Amino acid sequence: MPTLRIGIVGSRFAAHLHLLAYRRVFGLDVRLTGVTSPTPERREAFARESGATPYPAMSAMLPHVDVVDICAPPAAHEPVALEAIEAGKHVFIEKPFTGAFGPPNGPFAGNTSPKEPLVKEALASADRIIRAARQRGVVLGYAENWIYAPAIQKEREIVEKTGAQILWMLGGESHSGSHSPVYGIWRHAGGGSLVGKGCHPLTACLYLKEVEGWVNGGRPIRPATVSCRVHEITRLPTFRDRGFLRTDYEDIEDYSQLHVTFEDGTVADVFATEL
C-alpha cells in the first residue's frame, strides 16, 4: 500500500478537522508525520493528539513530509504554499485559496478600501501559487469539501446519466462566526462571509455547471458575469445584541449575496452570512 507523509501547518480548528479526515482515508497509508504552528502550546498539544512530530518552523518539517497541508489563516496561504512548492512538496490549501490583505505596513480597512485593486491582487496571488506548482511539477489541491457532499454528487450523477440542464441554482451557508480568532480582521482573513462561507456553495455551483458542460458540450460551462452585495448587519446602530451571535468583526462583511450568470445564460445565487 502506498504511503503518504503529511505535514500540517496550523494547529487550530481546521487542523483538527483534517486530522479526523485523514484517519478515515482507506486504500492509502496516510501518516501525519509533522505539525508546525507559531504557538508552541497548541503545536505540542496537537502533536500529542495526532502522534505527529512538532516542528518550530516549516523549514524543519519539509524534509520529512511528502505533502504540506496548509490550515493557517488565509494571509499565510501564499507564502507557505510557495515555500513548500519550492521544496518540491505537494500542497493542500484550506479555503479561501488566497486573497488580498492590504499593504504590509500602514493603516488598512478592507471594508472601505477600493475593491478593484484588491481583486487584482487576489487574482495575482492565486496565479503565483498555480504557476509555481506547474513549474515545479507538484500537485496543488484546493480543499473544497462541498463538492464531495452526497447531495452534490447525486446531482452530478443525475446530470451525467440524463444530460440534464441546470437552469438555476440557489446555495447558501450561514452560521455565527468562525473558530479563528482573526476571522473578523481583513488583513488576516481576506474578507468575511463572502470568502469565508460563500466559497462553499459557490464552488458547488461552479462544479455542477462544469459537469453539465462536459456531459453536453465537451467543455466546462464557465461564469460570464458576477455581481455581489455585502452588508455589516451586526454593526448597525439598531442591532440588538442578545449574545447569540459573534460580533467582534473589525472590517469584514457579515452578510453577502452573489449572483452569477454563466456562459449559457443560466444563473446561480449564493447567500452567505454570519447571522
Describe this entry's structure for a reader.
This protein is of the alpha/beta class and 275 residues long. It has two domains: 3-142, Rossmann fold (3-Layer(aba) Sandwich); 149-273, Dihydrodipicolinate Reductase, domain 2 (2-Layer Sandwich). Helices cover 35% and strands 22% of the residues. It has nine helices and ten strands. It has helices at 13-22, 40-50, 58-61, 77-86, 115-136, 150-162, 186-189, 193-196, 199-217; strands at 3-9, 29-36, 53-55, 67-70, 90-93, 140-142, 168-174, 223-231, 255-262, 267-273. Strands 3-2-1-4-5-6 form a six-stranded parallel sheet, sandwiched between helices. The relative contact order is 0.12. The model has no long low-confidence stretch (mean pLDDT 95).
Integer average pLDDT: 95
Name given to the CATH homologous superfamily of the largest domain: NAD(P)-binding Rossmann-like Domain
CATH architecture of the largest domain: 3-Layer(aba) Sandwich
Uncertain runs = none
